């Protein structure tokens, strides 16, 4: 049987064309440039560690030099992606980040930027990442607005821990529960947690007033004041809800329901003028303007 001759490997048909050869050479050159760049960055990093431990060293200056070098090499910020931002003003957030498009992506400290961002009132925590070659990612966890606090005629938005998170755009949060007086923010969570399980009482409350920084008065929407005891306020509220269910207590024309004494309940009706009954006064707390 005759043998089939194979085409020699050195055939003209097997030789790469001019463009293929050029592309192969460019790939080799780009690979070499990338290797040199990585080695340079590593070298600068080692130098930074050594000089940072030397007397009189300046890590900030080294970071700036590294950033300038990598910026020339093309590692510059082109995109800043922010996630989780709802109430934090974006201009303040970008100012705290401290890096703008066009600046070297390795020329700033992630830790310093995180600390600056976490110092903003609305921010609970922040994560900042470099995504080479050109993107900075900021992921926020913001504090949740919990209540409005009225004190000395001023309104502020507070979070669950009682920290002020906003004192300017309070009108946007006017539907939040209202607490009044010194000491109210740090004790509001316990009160409203107790009210959350008592919807028939909670829907009537217009404001919670902290008295003497030791107890609460609840001002209802019809003007009735519920005076709660210094201790065991949740138990007193549960008792009040039971009385409301059994006797429709809060539908009566009462000015004050005094629950400060655990073994008794004192009810004070609205005073009636001799001529005609009067309407109950407005609650002490006013709506934020």
Give an overview in words.
A hairpin with a 3-residue loop joins strand 8 (205-211) and strand 9. This protein is an alpha/beta fold and 289 residues long. The chain has two domains: 19-142, Ubiquitin-like (UB roll) (Roll); 147-269, Rossmann fold. The longest helix has 35 residues, at 18-52. The chain has helices spanning 18-52, 59-72, 90-97, 110-118, 184-196, 199-202, 233-247, and strands spanning 79-83, 123-131, 135-142, 147-151, 154-158, 164-166, 178-180, 205-211, 215-220, 225-227, 254-258, 266-269. It has seven helices and twelve strands. It starts with 17 loop residues before the first helix and ends in a 20-residue tail after the last strand. The model is unreliable at 6-12 and 46-57 (pLDDT under 50).
The CATH class of the largest domain is: Alpha Beta
In the CATH hierarchy, what is the architecture of the largest domain at level 2? Answer: Roll
- Rounded to an integer in angstroms, the radius of gyration calculated over CA atoms is 34 Å
**Strand order, biggest sheet?**
6-5-4-7-8-9-10-11-12
Binned, the helix content reads 25-40%
Structural class: alpha/beta
User: Any idea what the shape is?
Assistant: elongated
Give the overall pLDDT as a whole number: 82
Write down the CATH topology of the largest domain: Ubiquitin-like (UB roll)
Going by CATH, what is the homologous superfamily of the largest domain?
membrane protein fhac
Unreliable residue stretches: 6-12, 46-57
C-alpha end-to-end distance: 104 Å
β-sheet strand percentage: 15-25%
Order of helices and strands, N to C?
A: HHEHHEEEEEEHHEEEHEE
Number of strands: 12
């Amino acid at each position: 049987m005759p043998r089939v001759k194979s085409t020699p490997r050195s055939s003209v048909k097997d030789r790469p064309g001019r463009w293929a050869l050029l592309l192969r050479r460019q790939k080799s050159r780009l690979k070499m440039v990338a290797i040199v760049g990585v080695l340079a960055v590593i070298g600068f990093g080692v130098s930074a560690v050594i000089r940072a431990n030397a007397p009189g060293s300046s890590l900030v200056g080294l970071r700036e030099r590294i950033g300038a070098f990598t910026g020339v090499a093309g590692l510059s910020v082109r995109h800043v992606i922010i996630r989780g931002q709802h109430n934090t003003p974006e201009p303040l957030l970008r100012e705290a980040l401290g890096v703008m498009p066009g600046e070297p992506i390795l020329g700033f400290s992630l830790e310093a930027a995180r600390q600056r961002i976490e110092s903003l009132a609305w921010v609970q925590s922040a994560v900042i990442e470099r995504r080479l070659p050109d993107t900075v990612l900021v992921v926020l966890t913001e504090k949740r607005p919990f209540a409005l606090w009225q004190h000395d005629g001023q309104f502020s938005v507070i979070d669950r821990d009682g920290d002020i998170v906003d004192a300017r755009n309070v009108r946007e949060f006017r539907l939040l529960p209202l607490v009044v007086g010194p000491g109210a923010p740090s004790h509001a969570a316990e009160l409203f947690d107790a009210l959350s399980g008592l919807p028939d009482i909670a829907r009537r409350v217009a404001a919670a007033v902290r008295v003497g920084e030791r107890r609460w008065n609840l001002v209802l929407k019809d003007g009735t004041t519920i005076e709660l005891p210094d201790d065991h306020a949740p138990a007193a509220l549960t008792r009040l809800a039971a009385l409301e269910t059994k006797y429709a207590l809060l539908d009566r024309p009462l000015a004050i329901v005094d629950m400060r004494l655990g073994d008794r309940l004192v009810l004070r009706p609205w005073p009636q003028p001799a001529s005609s009954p009067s309407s109950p006064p407005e609650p002490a707390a006013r709506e934020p303007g």
